[in-house]
Amino acid sequence: LNSDCIFSLLLQITTEVCKLRLRAWVCMLSSSKQMLGPRRGYSATPLVPLSLSPPHFSFSQPRASLSFRKIVYVPVSTVVFGANTGPYVPSPLSTSSNVSSTRAPCETQEALFRFGLISDTQYVDDVDGTNFSGSKIRRYRNSFAILQRAVVSWNQHHNAGRPLSFIVQLGDLIDGKCKELNQSRSAVEDIRECMAESECKEWHFCIGNHEMYNYSTSEWVEEMYPPGQAQSYYDFSPHKGWRVVVLNSYEVSVMAPKGSAENLHALDVLKTNNPNDVINDAGSWFKDLEGEQRRFVPYNGQFSAAQLAWFKDVVETAAGNRERVLVACHQPCYSKCTNFENLPFNFQEALNIMHSRPGTVVAWVAGHDHDGGYAVDNTGIHHIVPAAPLECQLDEDAFGFVEVLPEDNGFRIHWTGKMPDKGQWPDILLPITSKCRKRDFCNKNGFVTLGKFAVLFILIIQFCAKQKKII
């Protein structure tokens, strides 16, 4: 039997027999019980303002006078929280390199690398607005202030010996209103001024729909992508054994230049899957659409065939090199961590690519859904959507950083402020352990040997026995 068939079959058998998600099996094999508990957010040393008076940012001044002024932060004791838990209680900064001596062994290990994380800021120098339905307040200037505080926080970790390797902004950096207010350029300049204060100089930006309202894809790539980067999707390796992939789910969209192949293709997809007049009547976009069909609206997009072919090659090469993969993209790719109306048109094709190599892709990190969400799919991939700064309250934050741990011990998210509404990530986010990677059970021709098949089957039996399940 071919190894792909055998491995997929065993994963299905394990899931059905145990009646648990694959992530529970992963936790057992990794000698960890944490993911079997309730979903929680975790922040090791959350940083909070010691004082916000006098105001750090004056919005009564004209845009030209905006300036980056550092806020004094103090670290607080280790907390585990779900949603917002109220005011923090400050405590002295520990001099220990470990966050807590009572943690599990994998929590006290030094990280392989760290990276900053922040979602939709949608900055425009304008008074507060609302979302399209008028149900939520969008605080544009407050969102920029949160980005400033994020930079201060990341700098403090840098100065405390916990430097970031890079920072990921998950798209919708500026708002579509910048176009009508003639701020497309000045808003980016304000962002650059904020970035200049960061000790970490490597920033990676996903392309969201609001970037497309202001710039073409090629213009945004030239403006904000790493020097020399020509494509809107790319990958890099921050550490041996790890690869980060930045995808563009708006390569094909109605926001592409009018009359372009990408624009016409997106229009065709919308007309085929949405019977409403999505171009001229915004009020009828979702009429009679149910479930996953609700994704076929103009503010979403899709991956091109060329991008998907490239992505498949990256995943397969990473699997061959025994690398773990983290994916960053503006749009989520799994319905259980978001709403149907936030998915790319062809999200299933991207999922199929990741699922074809179990254990290679560890997480898909996205924005777009301002409320945030978290879920694990049936192959153990973590789908993470941090809450957006844009819709935070005036006393809230929404940013953090990720620590990637060695020896298949997963990674943990240190988060400050607002947590996702739809599910919350656990203390430690574990990958499928290398003990269960298909490569370990195949011979050089790609076929499962009888002996290694028996080893894998014994692992399944052991897990079922520990869970007191009857086969």
Percent helix range: 25-40%
Poorly predicted sequence stretches spanning 5 or more consecutive residues: 17-107, 434-442
How many H/I helical runs?
11
Sheet/helix structural class: alpha/beta
> What is the helix/strand order?
HHEEEEEEEHEHHEHHEEHHEHEEEEEH
Mean pLDDT: 78
Strand content is 15-25%
What profile does the largest beta sheet have? 6 strands, mixed
Main-sheet strand order equals 10-11-12-13-15-14
Tell how many strands the DSSP assignment holds: 17
Radius of gyration from the CA trace?
A: 23 Å
Classify the oligomer. Answer: single chain
Keywords:
alpha/beta; 471 residues; six-stranded mixed sheet; 11 helices
What's a quick, concise take on this entry?
By secondary structure, this protein is an alpha/beta fold. 28% of the residues lie in helices and 16% in strands. It is globular.
Describe the structure.
The protein is 28% helix and 16% strand. It is of the alpha/beta class and 471 residues long. It has a 6-stranded mixed β-sheet, with helices on one face. A 5-stranded mixed β-sheet has the order 9-8-5-16-17, covered by helices on one side. A two-stranded antiparallel ribbon has the order 1-4. Strand 6 and strand 7 form a beta hairpin. Helix 9 packs parallel to helix 10 (347-355). It starts with a helix and ends in a 5-residue tail after the last helix. Mean pLDDT is 78; it is low at 17-107 and 434-442.
List the helices and strands and how they pair.
Elements: H1 3-18, H2 22-29, E1 41-43, E2 47-49, E3 73-75, E4 79-81, E5 113-118, E6 129-130, E7 137-138, H3 140-159, E8 166-169, H4 177-180, H5 184-196, E9 203-205, H6 209-214, H7 217-224, E10 234-239, E11 242-246, H8 261-273, H9 305-320, E12 324-329, H10 347-355, E13 361-366, E14 373-376, E15 382-385, E16 398-404, E17 411-417, H11 450-466
Parallel strand pairs: 5-8, 8-9, 11-12, 12-13, 13-15
Antiparallel strand pairs: 1-4, 2-3, 5-16, 6-7, 10-11, 14-15, 16-17
